[in-house]
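Quick question: what would this complex look like in 3D?
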Amino acid sequence: MSTIHPSNNGASERNSANADDLTGAERAIAGRLGVMGEASVPSAVQSAHLTAMAEQPVRRAGWSKLRVGAAFLAGLLIGGTGLGVAGALPSPAQSVAHDVLGAVGINVPEGTIYVACSDDFENHGAFVSANAKAMNEARSGARDADEEFDSRGGNRAAANDDCGRTDGVGAGNADNPCKPAHAGEGKPPWAGPGTVEEKQAAKDAAIADRPAECDEDAEAAEGDEEG
Amino acid sequence: MGSPGELNPADAYRRHAGRVLSYLRARGAAEPEDVLGEVFVQVARDARRFRGHGPTDERRWIFTIARNRLIDATRAAARRPVEPRENDDLRATPPPEPIDPALISALEALTDEQREVVVLRFVADLSLNDVAAVTGRKANAVKQLQHRALAALRRRLDPIDGDDELDLPVTPGDRTAL
């Protein structure tokens, strides 16, 4: 049975040096305290401790930070996926979750569309507007019936739908024959440098290129306004 | 002990366990041997994180761990109801040999701050700067606490000669001592 005694390591010398600025009485007390520090560890305790220490896995430096970071990312992923599947994300995030998680086979609702698409809608805007109106009516009905109603993502889903869209979406009125040929391509030919005569000639040429029915439609519209 | 991070836990135990145990006893730990075990288990676990050079840094690092584990143990003991222990094999060990009942009693009369400083300084045998680093105080504050602690111990241990210390002025940093 052996016991561990604190190694000297110059302890007594250090204590003496530490006590340089002490009075005689204080130095004596410091000495008594130093003696207290010379306790030994009982061998049974020592053996138990060394065994427990040997069983400890050594932690790598920085490993815990990596684990915290990985746990945070995993939490974000799991939490975000859960909210997305429940349809509880704000509509832009819900739409992103729908696209991203849909790519890996997780079915995430994008939002509810409240009207059926049909040819009755003149364009896409009419469809989105009708959807918003139907959604508001549904919300009012739910409120009257004291039922819960979740409209999150509804407008976004309608906006992302192709109902009412045509091939010319985003091209403005480029296919309108009544528009001049330069429509959507920047300044008209008569804008910018040039003489008055040159500009007027370019303007006349553009008008001459328009089909005759366009002028008739314009005149009829002017007549309606005056009437 | 050459480059940073090279620390053999078993060697560190042999070098420092005695003083750490003395420190824990002097600070009034309820189960000093248990806390000592927790300290060196953490030392073994975190040995690769040690970034110091030489025995001084090693001692300061280990006493920082000891101080933190002691704080944890004190808080845990405060929350835990007192229960009789079933396995008292280790506690059947003889009491610590350098017993100085009068000194222990005088230490108990100090404030926590004073006791911490004076025990780290003279029982654990750390320098003023090391005590400051372990406790997170400035060296001057440690020196002042040490001075007041020694004066208080002197009054307790030697009441006749220690009376001249009774009229020390009170400073803001030492209000808790009163």
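Answer marked as accepted. Residues 6-13, 168-172 of chain A have pLDDT under 50 and may be disordered.
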